[in-house]
Amino acid sequence: MAPKLSAVAIAVLCATHAFAAQPQFVSTDEMLAAYDHGDDNARQLILLGLTQTEGGMELANAELKARGQAPLYCAPPQMLTGEQILDMLRRYDGSHPEIGPGSYAVAILRAAEDVFPCR
């Protein structure tokens, strides 16, 4: 079981790297299960992947703002931790179970839009 969980953790991490030729698809359900059943190393890799994914979205927000366009969501000025992103994702998945089979990256975006709407 541990090798499969580590493989999912590595896939989450690789999906966030720009050098990947093809985007890796890891569902929200797979990512949450890998975190829940993974060892400390797998969990740290998953948290890093979540942080990098949300960080990329923050960069997109900064670019949108620089162009005078509306951001995707309006997060607080301090950087979110991997644990905060995981908690946000779990809560969103709990209230929107249809997101589970889809990409965890899209789920992060939807959760952030829900938690940090722009007013």
Layout of helices and strands, plus pairs?
Blueprint: H1 2-15, H2 28-37, H3 40-66, H4 82-95, H5 104-115
Helix pairs in contact: 1-2, 1-3, 3-4, 4-5
How would you describe this structure to a colleague?
This protein is mainly α and 119 residues long. The protein has one domain (2-115). Helix content is 65%, strand content 0%. The protein is built from five helices and no strands. The chain has helices spanning 2-15, 28-37, 40-66, 82-95, 104-115. α1 packs parallel to α3 and α3 (40-66) packs across α4 (82-95).
How would you sum up the global shape?
Answer: globular
The structural class is mainly alpha
Strands, total number? 0
> How many strands, what sense, and barrel or not for the largest sheet?
none
Poorly predicted parts: 15-22
Percent range for helical residues?
Answer: 55-70%
Distance between the termini: 45 Å
Average pLDDT number? 86
Features:
single chain; 119 residues; mainly alpha; globular
Summarize the structure.
This protein has helices at residues 2-15, 28-37, 40-66, 82-95, 104-115. The chain is an all-alpha fold.
